Every structure is written in C-alpha cells, then in structure tokens.
Amino acid sequence: MRLVVQRVANAKVDVEGKTVGKIGKGFMVLCGITHTDTEAEADYLAKKLCNLRVFEDENGKMNLALKDVGGELLVISQFTLYANTKDGNRPSFVDAAKPDLANPLYEYFMKKCTEYGIKVEKGVFGAHMEVSLLNDGPVTIILEK
Known about the structure:
By secondary structure, the protein is of the alpha/beta class. The chain has one domain: D-tyrosyl-trna(Tyr) Deacylase, Chain: A (3-Layer(bba) Sandwich), CATH 3.50.80.10. The chain is 22% helix and 39% strand. The protein contains three helices and eight strands, in the order E-E-E-H-E-E-H-E-H-E-E. It has helices at residues 39-50, 66-69, 99-114, and strands at residues 2-15, 18-23, 26-32, 55-56, 62-64, 72-77, 119-122, 130-144. Strands 1, 2, 3, 6, 7 and 8 form a six-stranded mixed β-sheet that branches. It has a two-stranded antiparallel ribbon with strand order 4-5.
C-alpha cells in the first residue's frame, strides 16, 4: 500500500461536474493498493497517517498531527501509484490490485482513519476524477508499507 500525502489548506474532488468530497485544512491523500496488501498494511498506514506530525506548532516547528489542528482527510484511490515504467514508455499496471481487492481495502483504510477521530472525505473508486487542492508548504510525503 502506497500513500502520497500532501498537506493542504483545502482540497476537493469532482466527478461528472459534481463535488463528491471536500475538505479544509488537512491532507489530500492518493492511495494505491497492490495485490499483496491486506488489512494489516491499512491498519499500519492509517495509524501512521493520522499521527503524522507535519503541522506547525506555536514555535513554527512541524510538531502537530491532524487531530491537533482539527485537520481532515480527502482520500483518492490511485492505481497509477503502482505504475511500472522500467521498460519502454508506456506504464504497466500489473502491480496494482484488481478492483475486487482494492476497493474493499480502500474503504477499510478510510474507516480505520475515522476511528482516529478524523473526518474523511473521498472520491469515487474507479471514476474519472478532477482533484483540486491548495498545497500548504508545500509538504508532500510518501508513506508505504
């Protein structure tokens, strides 16, 4: 499981011209799932993400987590995070999990994040999405298990 985490002032995702997920301050997370991922990886990354201390404290140091700043999550499924570009110019996606495995694990991951007291918004699994965000920093971190 691979996450690309961007600290944002706000973010939203639209599908077919309708906003389906929208947050204020927090993280916009691209979530990729490979065929060997299980709930154990989702548990580990939900805990890591929700406790990631990259928001500034009163001294300007990255020392605060989502809960400390009232932050929210926008989680977008992103199978292309498992693109293999080793050979040729056209990516292969054989390392990305098939939807019957990926979608339930994606949903499980978001449920685990809510158990940490974080508001979670999401995109539509498998849909063409338009994601907009206002980076804060910018701060971008890759988490993987």
